[in-house]
Design goal:
- The chain has 325 residues and is of the alpha/beta class.
- The protein is 39% helix and 18% strand.
- It contains 10 helices and 10 strands.
- It has helices at residues 15-33, 46-59, 77-88, 99-106, 112-131, 146-152, 181-190, 195-198, 218-237, 290-303; strands at 37-41, 63-69, 92-97, 137-141, 171-173, 246-250, 256-260, 263-276, 284-285, 307-312.
- A 5-stranded parallel beta sheet has the order 3-2-1-4-5, sandwiched between helices. Strands 6, 7, 8, 9 and 10 form a 5-stranded mixed beta sheet that branches.
- Helix 1 (15-33) packs across helix 2 (46-59), helix 1 (15-33) packs across helix 7 (181-190) and helix 4 packs antiparallel against helix 5.
Length: 325
Protein backbone atom coordinates (compact mmCIF):
# COMPACT_ATOMS: atom_id res chain seq x y z
CA UNK A 1 0.00 0.00 0.00
CA UNK A 2 1.30 3.43 -0.90
CA UNK A 3 2.23 5.71 1.97
CA UNK A 4 -0.39 8.31 1.02
CA UNK A 5 -3.52 9.06 3.02
CA UNK A 6 -6.72 8.84 0.98
CA UNK A 7 -7.95 12.43 0.58
CA UNK A 8 -11.52 11.14 0.99
CA UNK A 9 -10.70 9.72 4.43
CA UNK A 10 -12.74 11.51 7.11
CA UNK A 11 -10.93 13.09 10.03
CA UNK A 12 -11.57 11.11 13.22
CA UNK A 13 -13.07 13.77 15.48
CA UNK A 14 -15.46 11.82 17.72
CA UNK A 15 -16.15 8.45 19.31
CA UNK A 16 -18.46 7.28 16.51
CA UNK A 17 -15.80 7.79 13.83
CA UNK A 18 -13.16 6.30 16.14
CA UNK A 19 -15.24 3.14 16.65
CA UNK A 20 -15.76 2.82 12.90
CA UNK A 21 -11.99 3.06 12.40
CA UNK A 22 -11.39 0.44 15.12
CA UNK A 23 -13.83 -2.03 13.53
CA UNK A 24 -12.23 -1.49 10.12
CA UNK A 25 -8.71 -2.02 11.45
CA UNK A 26 -9.62 -5.10 13.50
CA UNK A 27 -10.85 -6.74 10.28
CA UNK A 28 -7.76 -5.59 8.35
CA UNK A 29 -5.37 -6.87 11.03
CA UNK A 30 -7.09 -10.27 11.18
CA UNK A 31 -6.90 -10.55 7.40
CA UNK A 32 -3.23 -9.54 7.26
CA UNK A 33 -1.95 -11.54 10.25
CA UNK A 34 -4.19 -14.60 10.36
CA UNK A 35 -3.02 -16.93 13.13
CA UNK A 36 0.57 -15.63 13.18
CA UNK A 37 2.10 -13.80 16.14
CA UNK A 38 2.88 -10.09 16.13
CA UNK A 39 5.67 -8.43 18.12
CA UNK A 40 5.42 -4.85 19.40
CA UNK A 41 7.84 -2.61 21.28
CA UNK A 42 5.49 -0.99 23.78
CA UNK A 43 6.97 2.25 25.12
CA UNK A 44 3.89 3.48 26.96
CA UNK A 45 3.51 6.45 24.60
CA UNK A 46 0.15 7.06 22.99
CA UNK A 47 1.06 5.71 19.52
CA UNK A 48 2.42 2.32 20.60
CA UNK A 49 -0.27 2.02 23.30
CA UNK A 50 -3.09 2.54 20.79
CA UNK A 51 -1.52 0.02 18.41
CA UNK A 52 -1.23 -2.48 21.27
CA UNK A 53 -4.88 -2.03 22.27
CA UNK A 54 -5.99 -2.42 18.62
CA UNK A 55 -3.97 -5.62 18.22
CA UNK A 56 -5.26 -7.06 21.49
CA UNK A 57 -8.80 -6.48 20.23
CA UNK A 58 -7.96 -8.11 16.90
CA UNK A 59 -5.70 -11.04 17.78
CA UNK A 60 -5.59 -11.27 21.58
CA UNK A 61 -2.71 -13.33 22.95
CA UNK A 62 -1.09 -13.56 19.51
CA UNK A 63 0.25 -10.09 20.20
CA UNK A 64 3.53 -10.21 22.11
CA UNK A 65 4.24 -6.78 23.56
CA UNK A 66 7.71 -6.06 24.93
CA UNK A 67 8.13 -3.18 27.35
CA UNK A 68 11.80 -2.33 27.89
CA UNK A 69 12.46 -0.27 31.00
CA UNK A 70 15.74 1.52 30.27
CA UNK A 71 15.69 3.34 33.60
CA UNK A 72 15.09 6.67 31.86
CA UNK A 73 11.30 6.68 31.98
CA UNK A 74 9.34 9.05 34.18
CA UNK A 75 8.31 7.96 37.66
CA UNK A 76 5.36 5.56 37.55
CA UNK A 77 5.39 4.94 33.79
CA UNK A 78 6.59 1.30 33.75
CA UNK A 79 4.06 0.48 36.47
CA UNK A 80 1.27 2.11 34.44
CA UNK A 81 2.16 0.09 31.33
CA UNK A 82 2.10 -3.15 33.33
CA UNK A 83 -1.19 -2.28 35.04
CA UNK A 84 -3.02 -1.22 31.88
CA UNK A 85 -1.82 -3.93 29.53
CA UNK A 86 -1.01 -6.97 31.67
CA UNK A 87 -3.71 -6.61 34.31
CA UNK A 88 -6.53 -4.58 32.71
CA UNK A 89 -6.29 -5.70 29.07
CA UNK A 90 -4.80 -9.15 29.83
CA UNK A 91 -2.10 -8.64 27.19
CA UNK A 92 0.74 -11.04 26.51
CA UNK A 93 3.28 -8.57 27.90
CA UNK A 94 6.99 -9.19 28.42
CA UNK A 95 8.52 -6.70 30.85
CA UNK A 96 12.28 -6.26 30.68
CA UNK A 97 14.06 -4.23 33.35
CA UNK A 98 17.28 -3.32 31.56
CA UNK A 99 17.93 -0.15 33.57
CA UNK A 100 21.26 -1.34 34.98
CA UNK A 101 22.48 -2.34 31.51
CA UNK A 102 21.61 1.10 30.10
CA UNK A 103 23.14 3.04 32.99
CA UNK A 104 26.34 0.99 32.85
CA UNK A 105 26.72 1.76 29.14
CA UNK A 106 26.08 5.46 29.81
CA UNK A 107 28.50 5.74 32.71
CA UNK A 108 30.84 8.71 32.26
CA UNK A 109 29.35 9.74 28.88
CA UNK A 110 28.90 13.53 28.72
CA UNK A 111 28.15 14.24 25.06
CA UNK A 112 24.35 14.30 24.40
CA UNK A 113 24.66 12.83 20.89
CA UNK A 114 26.75 9.94 22.21
CA UNK A 115 24.15 9.36 24.91
CA UNK A 116 21.39 9.26 22.28
CA UNK A 117 23.29 6.75 20.15
CA UNK A 118 24.07 4.52 23.13
CA UNK A 119 20.45 4.55 24.32
CA UNK A 120 19.21 3.73 20.81
CA UNK A 121 21.72 0.93 20.27
CA UNK A 122 21.21 -0.70 23.66
CA UNK A 123 17.44 -0.55 23.19
CA UNK A 124 17.73 -2.32 19.84
CA UNK A 125 20.08 -4.92 21.35
CA UNK A 126 17.72 -5.64 24.26
CA UNK A 127 14.61 -5.74 22.07
CA UNK A 128 16.28 -8.00 19.48
CA UNK A 129 17.52 -10.29 22.25
CA UNK A 130 13.97 -10.73 23.52
CA UNK A 131 12.61 -11.18 19.98
CA UNK A 132 15.02 -14.04 19.26
CA UNK A 133 13.68 -15.95 22.28
CA UNK A 134 10.20 -16.06 20.74
CA UNK A 135 8.83 -18.60 18.29
CA UNK A 136 6.23 -18.14 15.61
CA UNK A 137 6.53 -14.37 15.33
CA UNK A 138 6.07 -13.25 11.73
CA UNK A 139 5.11 -9.59 12.10
CA UNK A 140 6.44 -6.47 13.77
CA UNK A 141 3.87 -3.82 14.77
CA UNK A 142 4.89 -0.17 14.84
CA UNK A 143 3.23 3.00 16.06
CA UNK A 144 4.00 4.90 12.87
CA UNK A 145 1.62 7.83 12.34
CA UNK A 146 1.06 10.00 9.27
CA UNK A 147 3.30 12.93 10.32
CA UNK A 148 6.18 10.42 10.59
CA UNK A 149 5.66 9.45 6.94
CA UNK A 150 5.40 13.08 5.82
CA UNK A 151 8.53 14.18 7.71
CA UNK A 152 10.51 11.18 6.49
CA UNK A 153 10.17 12.56 2.95
CA UNK A 154 12.96 15.07 3.30
CA UNK A 155 12.44 16.66 6.74
CA UNK A 156 13.84 14.11 9.15
CA UNK A 157 14.09 10.36 9.44
CA UNK A 158 11.76 8.46 11.76
CA UNK A 159 12.56 5.01 13.08
CA UNK A 160 10.03 3.52 15.51
CA UNK A 161 12.09 0.41 16.02
CA UNK A 162 14.94 1.31 13.70
CA UNK A 163 17.99 -0.79 13.02
CA UNK A 164 16.64 -4.20 14.00
CA UNK A 165 18.83 -7.09 12.81
CA UNK A 166 17.83 -8.24 9.33
CA UNK A 167 17.80 -11.88 10.38
CA UNK A 168 14.60 -11.23 12.38
CA UNK A 169 12.87 -10.81 9.00
CA UNK A 170 9.53 -9.43 10.18
CA UNK A 171 6.71 -8.06 8.05
CA UNK A 172 5.25 -4.76 9.24
CA UNK A 173 1.84 -4.06 10.78
CA UNK A 174 1.11 -0.32 11.03
CA UNK A 175 -2.59 0.18 11.77
CA UNK A 176 -2.44 3.93 12.60
CA UNK A 177 -0.03 4.98 9.85
CA UNK A 178 -2.58 7.28 8.19
CA UNK A 179 -3.72 9.03 11.37
CA UNK A 180 -2.68 12.35 12.84
CA UNK A 181 -1.86 12.56 16.56
CA UNK A 182 -5.25 14.01 17.53
CA UNK A 183 -6.96 11.13 15.69
CA UNK A 184 -4.77 8.56 17.45
CA UNK A 185 -5.91 10.05 20.76
CA UNK A 186 -9.59 9.74 19.73
CA UNK A 187 -9.02 6.06 18.90
CA UNK A 188 -7.21 5.51 22.21
CA UNK A 189 -10.11 6.93 24.20
CA UNK A 190 -12.59 4.79 22.24
CA UNK A 191 -10.47 1.72 23.03
CA UNK A 192 -10.74 2.51 26.74
CA UNK A 193 -7.14 3.53 27.42
CA UNK A 194 -6.61 5.81 30.45
CA UNK A 195 -6.81 9.55 29.77
CA UNK A 196 -3.32 10.06 31.27
CA UNK A 197 -1.86 7.57 28.78
CA UNK A 198 -3.77 8.90 25.78
CA UNK A 199 -2.78 12.48 26.55
CA UNK A 200 0.75 11.68 27.69
CA UNK A 201 2.81 14.76 26.87
CA UNK A 202 5.59 14.52 24.26
CA UNK A 203 8.64 12.72 25.57
CA UNK A 204 12.07 12.52 23.89
CA UNK A 205 13.19 9.16 22.53
CA UNK A 206 16.18 8.98 24.92
CA UNK A 207 13.81 9.74 27.78
CA UNK A 208 15.24 11.41 30.86
CA UNK A 209 18.72 10.74 29.49
CA UNK A 210 18.68 14.20 27.85
CA UNK A 211 17.26 15.94 30.92
CA UNK A 212 19.86 14.58 33.32
CA UNK A 213 22.53 16.75 31.75
CA UNK A 214 26.07 15.55 31.10
CA UNK A 215 27.20 12.21 32.51
CA UNK A 216 24.20 10.47 34.12
CA UNK A 217 24.51 9.47 37.77
CA UNK A 218 21.94 7.47 39.72
CA UNK A 219 21.44 10.12 42.41
CA UNK A 220 20.86 12.92 39.87
CA UNK A 221 18.57 10.69 37.82
CA UNK A 222 16.57 9.90 40.97
CA UNK A 223 16.32 13.63 41.78
CA UNK A 224 15.15 14.26 38.21
CA UNK A 225 12.38 11.65 38.42
CA UNK A 226 11.15 13.01 41.74
CA UNK A 227 11.15 16.68 40.69
CA UNK A 228 9.45 15.84 37.39
CA UNK A 229 6.79 13.83 39.23
CA UNK A 230 6.04 16.73 41.57
CA UNK A 231 5.79 19.19 38.66
CA UNK A 232 3.42 16.91 36.72
CA UNK A 233 1.32 16.30 39.83
CA UNK A 234 0.93 20.01 40.51
CA UNK A 235 0.17 20.76 36.84
CA UNK A 236 -2.67 18.25 36.99
CA UNK A 237 -4.02 19.62 40.27
CA UNK A 238 -3.96 23.19 38.91
CA UNK A 239 -5.63 22.00 35.65
CA UNK A 240 -2.73 23.39 33.64
CA UNK A 241 -1.87 20.02 32.09
CA UNK A 242 -4.11 20.57 29.04
CA UNK A 243 -3.10 24.20 28.66
CA UNK A 244 0.65 23.67 28.28
CA UNK A 245 2.11 21.55 25.49
CA UNK A 246 5.17 20.31 27.37
CA UNK A 247 6.44 20.81 30.92
CA UNK A 248 9.29 19.07 32.68
CA UNK A 249 12.30 19.46 34.96
CA UNK A 250 16.01 19.30 34.22
CA UNK A 251 18.90 18.50 36.55
CA UNK A 252 22.16 20.05 35.29
CA UNK A 253 25.62 18.93 36.28
CA UNK A 254 27.20 20.86 39.14
CA UNK A 255 25.86 21.82 42.53
CA UNK A 256 24.64 24.84 44.45
CA UNK A 257 25.34 25.91 48.02
CA UNK A 258 22.33 25.98 50.32
CA UNK A 259 21.41 25.84 54.01
CA UNK A 260 19.10 23.39 55.77
CA UNK A 261 18.57 23.24 59.52
CA UNK A 262 21.41 25.70 59.96
CA UNK A 263 23.87 23.48 58.10
CA UNK A 264 25.49 23.86 54.71
CA UNK A 265 23.95 21.69 51.98
CA UNK A 266 25.76 21.31 48.67
CA UNK A 267 22.96 20.10 46.42
CA UNK A 268 21.55 19.97 42.92
CA UNK A 269 19.64 22.60 41.00
CA UNK A 270 16.23 21.72 39.50
CA UNK A 271 15.16 23.67 36.40
CA UNK A 272 11.49 24.00 35.47
CA UNK A 273 10.61 24.36 31.79
CA UNK A 274 7.13 24.83 30.29
CA UNK A 275 6.55 25.62 26.62
CA UNK A 276 3.77 25.91 24.06
CA UNK A 277 4.22 25.21 20.35
CA UNK A 278 2.25 24.36 17.22
CA UNK A 279 4.97 22.65 15.20
CA UNK A 280 7.96 22.28 17.59
CA UNK A 281 9.98 24.48 15.22
CA UNK A 282 9.45 27.44 17.53
CA UNK A 283 8.13 27.63 21.09
CA UNK A 284 6.85 30.23 23.49
CA UNK A 285 7.13 30.23 27.26
CA UNK A 286 4.03 29.65 29.35
CA UNK A 287 3.77 32.34 32.01
CA UNK A 288 3.03 30.18 35.03
CA UNK A 289 1.45 31.89 38.05
CA UNK A 290 3.93 32.86 40.75
CA UNK A 291 1.84 31.13 43.43
CA UNK A 292 2.00 27.91 41.40
CA UNK A 293 5.78 28.15 40.96
CA UNK A 294 6.18 28.83 44.67
CA UNK A 295 4.10 25.76 45.57
CA UNK A 296 6.11 23.52 43.23
CA UNK A 297 9.38 24.92 44.57
CA UNK A 298 8.35 24.35 48.20
CA UNK A 299 7.40 20.74 47.47
CA UNK A 300 10.63 20.02 45.62
CA UNK A 301 12.82 21.53 48.35
CA UNK A 302 10.90 19.65 51.03
CA UNK A 303 10.49 16.27 49.33
CA UNK A 304 13.49 15.73 47.06
CA UNK A 305 16.77 14.77 48.64
CA UNK A 306 19.90 16.64 47.49
CA UNK A 307 18.01 19.42 45.65
CA UNK A 308 18.43 22.84 47.26
CA UNK A 309 17.55 25.29 44.48
CA UNK A 310 14.77 25.62 41.89
CA UNK A 311 14.89 27.95 38.87
CA UNK A 312 12.46 28.67 36.01
CA UNK A 313 13.75 28.70 32.43
CA UNK A 314 12.04 31.45 30.39
CA UNK A 315 14.07 31.06 27.18
CA UNK A 316 11.93 30.76 24.01
CA UNK A 317 12.78 28.80 20.87
CA UNK A 318 14.65 30.19 19.09
CA UNK A 319 17.25 30.90 20.53
CA UNK A 320 16.99 28.05 23.00
CA UNK A 321 15.78 24.59 22.00
CA UNK A 322 12.88 22.90 23.78
CA UNK A 323 15.17 20.32 25.36
CA UNK A 324 18.50 21.39 26.84
CA UNK A 325 20.40 18.53 25.19
Amino acid sequence: MANIRDPKMKRITNKTLANAFINEQVKAIKKQVGSKKVLLALSGGVDSSVVAALLIKAIGKNLVAVHVNHGLLRKGEPEQVIKVFRHNLKANLIYVDASKEFLNKLKGVNDPEKKRKIIGKVFIDVFAREAKKLKGVAYLAQGTIYPDIIESKGVKAHHNVGGLPKDLNFKLVEPVKFLYKDEVRQVGLALGLPHDMVYRQPFPGPGLGVRCLGAITLDRLTALKETDYILRDEFKKAKLDQKVWQYFTIIPEGKSTGVINGKRLYGYVAVIRAVNTKDAMSATIEELPYAFLKKVTNRILKEVKNVNRVVYDITPKPIGTIEWE
